[in-house]
Amino acid sequence: MAHQTWKRRSFLRTAGLAGLAPLFPLHAAAGGSGWSESFARALEKNPMLLGWRSVRADRLRCEARIEGRLPAELQGIFYRNGPAVYQRFGVRYRHWFEGDGMVQACRFDGRGVSHHARVLETPKLVRETSAQRRLFSGFATSAGGGAGPRRPDDLNVANTSVLDHHGELLALWEGGSASVLDRETLAWQGFKVWGESLDGLPFTAHPKVESDGTLWAFGYSFAPVPALLLYHIAPDGTVRRAHRIDVGAPGMVHDFVVTARHLVIVIPPLVFAPAAGDEVLLDALSWQPALGSRVLVVDKDDFDTRRWYQLPAGFGFHHGNGWEDDSGVIRFDHCVATDASLVTDRMRAIMRGELGEATPERYARFTLRPNGSAEVEATGEEAEFPRIAPSVAGRRNRYVYTLGAASVESTGWHLRRVVKRDLDAGSVEAFDYGPGVIPEEHVFVPKQAPRSEDDGWLIGPYLDYVRELSGIAIFDARHVADGPMARAWLDYPLPIALHGHFSPA
Ligand SMILES: [Fe+2]
Question: Among 145-149, 386-390, 458-462, 500-504, whose mean pLDDT is lowest?
Fold first, then answer.
């Protein structure tokens, strides 16, 4: 195979990760006691929690009711993925991220929008159904007694994002393998094996695809040794390189940055430090701000050429974009908080119906200089789910689209505005969905022949928890503050999902 230029050395370096299991052979009493009741009581008082109620059916279909003017040129399938099943066999899961995944396909044909959703029948779900109980302790939910997971994919809920690459539709989950889906039925078909010795290894939910189809990805593992795995995958889906890098203290890494010449990975000081009495992986994650955040910069052409930067401690999930100038200065953005309470506290508390306290993530711009110095410029504005035009990925971008809080002072649980940030002008425009609505990640879809970076649509789902209906909003991305030009209302409410991808027709 011409494209599969495996290096024996890289091959061997990845092999050590294959013996990853057991991830966390931690046993304890079964979780869930009282959480179901607590959530149900809280939902009666606070309808916003509808976004974290288990989906009521494994499969859903409807033709959306269109409000406004649907652009005829916007044609393709908007895929979504997110946790959707939060309770099985009397056990309410104890973290948002543990929900079993449901993939949605919203088909835009220029005249209407048809919606199809399906809970993924992963091996984890199927085995549990057969056993009529939770089998393994997960990220935050204990199964109580029994054996630990044999490999990460025993816990794989395939619930985080969707990748459409080289004709394959993949559901992504960062703890283990990607999952191959049937494009028409959305049925779970099998775990993606990128190559020999890569079976079952972690693969990020945030891979980056370049304009020629080249795919960059990473995976991280806490045990048996902390490591990052880097993937370089050709446009035809074959693995060019897969390379394991020892990183010292392991951190929880969710996203990364790809510039023209480098991969940039921010490793926050949320480290794996198991102690006696820890029941689940989340218990074993420790916020250690004294370590600071470390930034690893890897040469795309040579994974052995690396350098590190040290920054103040921060925790964030997502980057919008990164790029470098002719002098080698790398710039990227990050939605980042000063601690990890969002993941360690709030996303756990929401499962028992409590909003909890958490330090908000704010939009920040990072600069890494060739002389080893680094700086962070924080805007102070709360932000999450950054997206950009695909045409400027890895290059200097003018615009980034995020969700934002209702006001600068507001730090409530959910982000209510859709924000378009003009990085050149230093200005912001936004649309506020208003009370009673939770918007989700909004994705930029370019027109077929765009005349500017923002010549396209911004499309994103929302949950109207007052009407108890979900919908998909379509904005002219040039005029976000004008609000949606169209809304596609579904026949049902859906749990809040995570990430989406638009595949043009
Ligand atoms: Fe994410």
Answer: 145-149
DSSP symbol at 344: I
Class of domain 8-504: mainly beta
Model-level pTM?
A: 0.92
Domain boundaries, the chain: 8-504
**Token code pair at residue 185:** 């039925």
Inter-CA distances, 474 with 41, 344, 387, Å = 35, 33, 15
Q: How far, in Å, is the centroid of ligand 1 from the Cα of 8?
A: 32
Please compute, for residue 253, the number of CA atoms within 13 A of its CA located in the half-sphere on the CB side: 31
- For residues 325 and 409, the model is more confident at 325
**Which pLDDT band, with edges at 50, 70 and 90, does 262 fall under?**
very high
pLDDT > 70 in the chain, percent: 91
What separation in Å is there between the alpha carbon of 267 and the centre of ligand 1?
A: 15
Cα–ligand 1 centroid distance for 464 (angstroms): 22
CB 306 within 8 A of CB 244: no
Return the structure tokens found at 407. Answer: 């006001």
Phi and psi, residue 160, nearest 5°: -110, -45
CA–CA dist 425, 482 (Å, integer): 19
How far away, in angstroms, is 431 Cα from ligand 1 center?
Answer: 22
